[in-house]
């Protein structure tokens, strides 16, 4: 979608037009699982309200409570296969998508999983840019997103973190909206890769990162393209 003067005017209309959402369903090889079957139930499962503070513990997996991990199962996923998340609503907000993984110790359904600097990015879907078109969000108005588990991912249990950073209000600090889901998976048929670089949540993002603090309706004159927050993607 190209953002122009007309879009800027439309942006002034209250943003209640586009609903919020959660990611309750894991997708494995085109099969959509049941709500919260393998995804940790999130604190916004009723309100659908996003996370806006990148320094909060909620930025990791946004769990409802300490029981979320144990109440969800662990899905078996073959390295190199297609996985993803399905939202409970149309994702009408323009934004940036990414997926992270972390080895889960002692297990994927443990509250201790993913607490350290162990997360690595495996996929991203950023808006494109050119001076003639502006920012174009091909990901807008979808209800699911999929990607591939890298073939060289070592076997074992992981948390798989899917995220959209909605950017329609991101022109002010804490205006960006983070929609997050963490699935519990067991990777089989993998390789001997060494995923890197690794980050922690919170810690991976700053509220002033250029991909988080950005007015998509009024880009600066020297803008050259969207700068994704977080680490580089590990391709495996």
TrEMBL record:
Position of the signal peptide: 1-19
Keyword Repressor: no
Co-factor requirement: Cu(2+)
GO biological process: cellulose catabolic process
Auxiliary Activity family 9 catalytic domain mapped to chain residues: 20-220
UniProt GO MF annotations: metal ion binding; monooxygenase activity
Cellular-component GO terms for this entry: extracellular region
Coiled coil residues, start to end: none
Catalytic activity: [(1->4)-beta-D-glucosyl]n+m + reduced acceptor + O2 = 4-dehydro-beta-D-glucosyl-[(1->4)-beta-D-glucosyl]n-1 + [(1->4)-beta-D-glucosyl]m + acceptor + H2O
Cellular location(s): Secreted
InterPro entries: AA9, AA9_LPMO
UniProt EC number: 1.14.99.56
Record key words, sorted: Carbohydrate metabolism, Cellulose degradation, Copper, Disulfide bond, Metal-binding, Monooxygenase, Oxidoreductase, Polysaccharide degradation, Secreted, Signal
Family in the record: Belongs to the polysaccharide monooxygenase AA9 family.
Protein name: lytic cellulose monooxygenase (C4-dehydrogenating)
Phylogenetic placement of the source organism: Eukaryota, Fungi, Dikarya, Basidiomycota, Agaricomycotina
